Amino acid sequence: MARQWIATQWGEPEGWEFVDREVAAPAAGEVTIRVRAAGVNPADYKHVSAPRPGAELPIPIGYEVAGVLTAIGPGTSIGSGDAQVGDAVVAFRIQGGYAEELTVPAKDVFAKPDRLPDEEAANLLLAGTTAAQMLHTVRARAGETILAHGASGAVGVSVLQQAGELGVHVVGTASEASFARVRRFGGTPVEYGDGLAERVRHATHAPIVAALDTVGTDEAVDVSLELVADRSRIVTIVAAARAAQEGFAAVFGAQPESQAYRDSVRSPLLELAGSGRLQVPIARTYPLAEAPEALRFLAEGHPGGKIALIP
Question: Nearest 5 degrees, angle CA 16-CA 21-CA 25?
């Protein structure tokens, strides 16, 4: 038996249940992981806040974890290759990560780099693969300057670092209180609010050739449209309606093409993190039993880094 958070009704995390569940023995193509840290993301509660097509209750919560293999299905290797019981691993995209132990598809499990702490490993891939797809979608290239809205958030911080690896300079919107975080990861911060487009122009002598929106405000979209001539080089992960109206890209994890791309970059991102070139700032950790409290803290906005649940 292992404890796990599940949504038994649509709504806020306070309505979830922390239950004892049998951990299924892994079949071929599956492995069992004892969780050391579970990543916490806005999608964890947004995806069960209201009914949506294809989703049926009860729903286990959580998409990414770091832990240790406790069982391996017959004839099974993991996403990164051969593995043994006791190996440290990272898993994403899975379901039910807010758990003490769980059985998941082996293809979504990868060896954890030794130097990567569990709390960071458990929070690397959802934000990291999203950032990678956004950069890929706008075709960011070495020597260019791009605009990232929400540069101090989890996806934004990953964008800053991955853009740096590509040789791309980022002007990033943030509150003044978060400027140090944007600078720490190689970006040029500008404060959002009235006059944003002009502040972005003053922040760089280079043209803004692409824009990445992680916040979804009308301001972010309007400024992107004003500064970027080619709408095929604007992407959002929030403002789907504006994207459809204005003719630029919106990408979401549920899209088949998004899933395929994000799955393809899991191993490279883990290699970057293992080398120390991709960091995941951690704001706080909570005991697994306090998941609703952790999500309340996240929902308050600007936590200053990622949050991990520790069984």
Answer: 140
Q: Quick check: 83 pLDDT over 90?
A: yes
Coil, strand or helix at 144: coil
67 vs 87: CA distance, rounded Å = 8
105 preceded by a cis bond (ω within 30 of 0): no
Instruction: Report CA-CA distances (Å) from 35 to 25, 39, 56, 167.
Output: 16, 11, 25, 36
Q: Work out the average pLDDT over 79-83.
A: 98
pLDDT of residue 300: 86
Bridge partner list, 208: 145
**Distance of alpha carbon 308 from alpha carbon 227, whole angstroms:** 37
98, 102, 106, 111 alpha-carbon torsion, rounded to 10° = 70
Burial call 138-148: b when 16+ CB within 10 Å, e when fewer: bebeeebbbbb
CA 5 vs. chain centroid, Å, equals 20
Amino acid, single-letter form, for residue 138: V
Tell me the sheet residues that pair with 89: 67, 111
pLDDT of residue 2: 98
CA gap 123, 17 in Å, rounded = 23
